[in-house]
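To whoever is on call:

I kicked off a structure prediction for a single chain this morning and the downstream step that reads the tokens threw a length-mismatch warning. I double-checked the sequence; it's 261 residues and nothing unusual in it as far as I can see. Pasting both halves so you can look.
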Amino acid sequence: MKIASFNINGIKARLPRLKEWLEETRPTVACLQEIKTMDDGFPADEFAAIGYNAIWHGQKSFNGVAILADGIEPVEIQRGLGIDGPKDGEGEQARYLEAEVGGVRVCNLYLPNGNPHPGPKFDYKLAWMAKLRERMTEIREQEVPAIVLGDFNVIPEDKDVWSPKAMASDALMQPQSRDAYARFLGDGWTDAIDTFNPRGGVWTYWDYQAGAWQRDHGFRIDHLLLSPELADRLVAAGVDKEHRAREKASDHAPVWVELRD
């Protein structure tokens, strides 16, 4: 079983690249972030035509998450974590979608960026991570095979960024952000990419600006965290870096894990 995550950065703008990746790599489950469309604009028929069933949680112009499954119907468990956005009266943003797929609990997330730091957006990021930890604890206590994956907007350690100095003031690698992420691991979740790349140097994001892709100035913010029950089945994990090089690509590359049945 192969489970993947891909921050697509606008599903309508990247649809040809997204379908190309799905057909070339054929993950069993594909979790998408930043679909940037309202629910009624999600192109479910495009995915059905190549064999993928989908559920999604959209939002106009921003955020949005979706779960695609190859020949399997995802059974929705929960959408949202019950936390409002940083603006007064904004309501909850479309950042979390949880489903049962092929006997695995799949929790797809797009964690707040948190910039500018300090400020209300950074406070929101930390509050969101605390809510996520509460939900992850509930799932772990159920002792089900589970994966929490997506764009965490956290650079866990200095080894996960091309230049710690260049990113030192960014919300993605503030001590509070890193500490909140480390607490997930301390609770017993396994970082799949880090397991196979303990020395770091693996990036999942390259900015469109300043020739970041061409200079390989990237960092790792897309993560796949496995519950103990699922970590026992871990075979491989990786990044489809080549897809970042294609025309009109997302600024993220897909990440994935392979699991024993």
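Update from on-call: the warning came from a stale cache, not from the record. Cleared it. Sanity check on the structure: The chain has one domain: 2-259.
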